[in-house]
């Protein structure tokens, strides 16, 4: 966010508000199409409890880095902690 704000002369606070409004709008418009809750929530909850002792769980969130070729511009945001170029992706299961 800071890179975009600095590049376009926008403060961090303004960028934060803009990102929040965009996420809120996407959530309102696409939530029902994108977020799918399991039909058998009780069964999923029970499986999580039996497998890991986790009560009231119906899904998991995890992240991974997808390797990419180095971009020709604005390379820094795509360099991960290992010095490799990647996209940081969040996955819901």
Topology:
Elements: H1 2-8, H2 12-34, H3 41-52, E1 61-67, E2 86-92
Antiparallel strand pairs: 1-2
Organism: Romanomermis culicivorax
Protein name: Nuclease HARBI1
As a whole number of angstroms, the C-alpha radius of gyration is 18 Å
Total strands: the figure is 2
Mean pLDDT: 87
What proportion of the residues form beta strands (DSSP E)? 15-25%
Could you give the order of strands across the largest sheet? Answer: 1-2
What does this structure look like?
There is one protein chain. By secondary structure, the chain is α+β, with helices and mostly antiparallel strands. It has two domains: 1-35; 38-93, no CATH class. The chain has helices spanning 2-8, 12-34, 41-52; strands at 61-67, 86-92. The protein has a two-stranded antiparallel sheet. The model has no long low-confidence stretch (mean pLDDT 87). This is Nuclease HARBI1. It comes from Romanomermis culicivorax (Nematode worm).
What does this entry show, briefly?
Helices cover 45% and strands 15% of the residues. It is of the alpha+beta class and 93 residues long.
For this entry, give a set of tags.
alpha+beta, 93 residues, 2 strands, 45% helix
């Amino acid at each position: 966010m800071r890179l975009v704000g600095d590049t376009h002369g926008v403060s961090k606070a303004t960028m934060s508000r803009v990102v929040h409004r965009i996420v809120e709008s996407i959530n309102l418009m696409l939530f029902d199409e994108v977020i799918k809750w399991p039909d058998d929530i009780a069964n999923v909850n029970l499986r999580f409890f039996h497998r890991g002792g986790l009560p009231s769980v119906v899904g998991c969130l995890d992240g991974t880095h997808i390797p990419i070729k180095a971009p020709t511009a604005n390379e820094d945001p795509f360099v991960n902690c290992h010095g490799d170029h990647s996209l940081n992706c969040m996955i819901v299961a």
